[in-house]
Amino acid sequence: MKRVHVFYSGHVQGVGFRYSVQDIAMNLGVTGWVKNLEDRSVEVVAEGEHKALEEFLDKISKSYIGRYIKDMDVSWEKPEGEFDSFEVAF
Q1: Which residues are identified as catalytic?
Q2: Which pLDDT does position 66 carry in this prediction?
Q3: CA-CA distance, 49 to 39, in Å (whole number)?
Q4: What does the DSSP assignment read for 2-30?
Q5: First-residue to last-residue Cα distance in the chain
Q6: Under a CB-based contact definition with an 8 Å cutoff, are residues 22 and 87 in contact?
Q7: For the segment 24-67, what is each residue's pLDDT rounded down to a tens digit?
Q8: Residue of 34, 38, 46, 75 with fewest CB within 10 Å of its CB?
Q9: What backbone phi and psi angles, to 5 degrees, belong to 49?
């Protein structure tokens, strides 16, 4: 089990990004949350098997990088096991 903490910047708000991230996570069995930040970036915290998290990040990048994502800051962290599902946080 691993945990990834990601900040996405660019044109990532108002384009269905959070709900797409949630859908990708749910299809891969990844738990955590995604939320918009005041600076117009989006924050994601996700936990799951390392392979599932890599696929999660890859699917997000393939769908949004270049068109909407201008930058992403990825940090791998120790999992805390605090999530039961993947939610859009407000």
Answers
A1: 18, 36
A2: 84
A3: 30
A4: EEEEEEEEES-SSSSHHHHHHHHHHHHT-
A5: 26
A6: yes
A7: 999 999 999 999 999 999 999 999 999 999 999 999 999 998 88
A8: 38
A9: -65, 145
